[in-house]
Amino acid sequence: MHQEDVEKIGKNRIAFVMFASIFLVVMVVVATVSIGRRPNNGKSEVDVSSQSHDQVSASMKAIKTVCQPTDYQKQCVESLQTESGNTTDPKELIRAAFQVAKKHVAAAAKRSRTLKQLEKDPRASLALEDCNELMDEAIEDLQRSFEELGKSDHQARYKMGPMINNLKTWLSSTITYQETCLDGFANTTGEAGVKMREILKTSIELTINAIAMVSKISSILGNLDINREINLGSSHHRGLIENNAKVLWHGGIHVLEHGDLYPSWLGPRNRKLLGLIDQAQFKPDVVVAKDGSGNCTTINEALNFIPKKSNKTTTIYIKEGIYQEKVYLNRSMARVFMIGDGMYKTRITGNLNYVDGTPTMHTATVSILGEFFMAKNIGFENSAGPEKHQAVALRVDADMSIFYNCSMDGYQDTLYTHAKRQYYRDCTITGTIDFIFGDGSAFFQNCKIIVRKPLDNQHCIVTAQGRNVTHQPTAIVIQNSSIIADHVYWPVRNKIKSYLGRPWRIHSRTVIMETFIDDLIQPQGWLPWEGEFGIHTCFYAEYGNYGPGANKTGRVTWQGVKSIDRLEEAFEFTAGKFFDGDDWIKPRGVPYVSGFVTN
């Protein structure tokens, strides 16, 4: 039997086990519900009132069962009673939970528009404007979750694992968008922030309930221990990756062999673009060139060539040059591939910043929301400087996005990994304070993380991860990378201290493994945000790191700093396991390691 056949059979078996396990969960609920039903005993006369009562009773038992794993059970039960009719179908009840959360988010958006009309504080007014935009994004993801769970059993049967991961990702982003809305009211006057928090209270609770329901299913699948047969050793695992990916290297050039498995929307021509460009054969959809030799002279002009919600890749080649633009790819601009001439040759730069009045979210030089975005050989920069505080170079909300051989340069808040699944390979990220931050599932592999010199009265903090709810699958994971100082900061690194991260949100989660950490990082490793906030509830872990800053002997002893000593524990945060990178990264041809890089 061929290796491909073995793998196919294995995948089908896993899919079947997943489907069967979910079916068992549903049957448990149905059995629970059925207990409350009164048998008809073959009588010809039916007591309609009694049947109706039994149906309501059965529905209530189903609701209570579905709501059992939620954080806000009273809110869950009451909302589903109103929304779900008398259904006892667990899947429809969970979908109803998505719908009721969406209704409350939509109501919050409407009220934010009303508040904006009355607001006099300019920053608060901008925050309310952002809230309206963020609520629209949250509504989109809730609707998408509703539709995903509504797929037929035949569609879902062999895609149970990916479907659950999609739901967790999209529901998580819905929570993130609502929290980001509230962030905007920091340093504002008046009562708009307080009112908005009250308005969003119910919608946030309902969204947390929705992701709790999905997480319960996910935990059952996890307990099946399906993937334990995978060899965790690095050499064997690398062999599997190389064989399965069919990747060839010739003279340092990444070439994709005929017969690779790719997404249907990534055509053969676009697959080759991930490797070194042959200028003679390279035919992108759009060429941006400052000298006028392309279709456009600005990147924003090129965005007009992107079809809305297309199922095919749009390739934009950005020739060497410094492009001083604010670039925004909205949600409808999906499957865009931007490729430049090199991270230090093709540069997109801006200088918007918080001090001068721009909300953090909108300081981003480039913002990307369309899913399946890819970038290669491009530099993203915010040149505002350390005295301007928050100044984002790149904000990413694009699900399953990839950045390969790119740079993100700035000072405070350089890279905003705002939401959803993101993969960074062979990238360089520079900054000072919280310069990798956000609540996406962000994975950095083979990257250079370079700390720059801040103001004299500041510390440097590499990460500030923003997970606020334990059910969220999000984290910042750094693997096989280096954390070092730049040449300006190096002489003062012992005077101006640096740390691996601090808990921006109460359940902040960051994992650093197989990474070189230089001596700029203080022995404590991690820095508090404010007082004891998050230090007992965060999840910070280091595994298999090396270098003078990797010694864990002097690390802080917070409850939230975890000791990962076993291979199996660390394996949970490898790219293949953490966010199913094998499914969406490997097929797109970029260098990628699914498991561990070293022994």
UniProtKB/TrEMBL annotation:
Pathway: Glycan metabolism; pectin degradation; 2-dehydro-3-deoxy-D-gluconate from pectin: step 1/5
Biological source species: Citrus x changshan-huyou
Family label: In the N-terminal section; belongs to the PMEI family. In the C-terminal section; belongs to the pectinesterase family.
Job of this protein: Acts in the modification of cell walls via demethylesterification of cell wall pectin.
Active-site residues, Swiss-Prot/TrEMBL: D434
EC number: 3.1.1.11
Signal peptide: none
Places the protein is found: Secreted, Cell wall
NCBIfam families, per database record: PME_inhib (TIGR01614)
CDD domains: PMEI-like_3
SMART domains named in the record: PMEI
Alphabetical list of PROSITE patterns matching this protein: PECTINESTERASE_1, PECTINESTERASE_2
The keyword Coiled coil appears for this protein: no
Protein name: Pectinesterase
Catalysed reactions listed for this entry: [(1->4)-alpha-D-galacturonosyl methyl ester](n) + n H2O = [(1->4)-alpha-D-galacturonosyl](n) + n methanol + n H(+)
InterPro entries the UniProt entry points to: Invertase/methylesterase_inhib, Pectin_lyas_fold, Pectin_lyase_fold/virulence, Pectinesterase_Asp_AS, Pectinesterase_cat, Pectinesterase_inhib_dom, Pectinesterase_Tyr_AS
Keywords, alphabetical: Aspartyl esterase, Cell wall, Cell wall biogenesis/degradation, Disulfide bond, Glycoprotein, Hydrolase, Membrane, Secreted, Transmembrane, Transmembrane helix
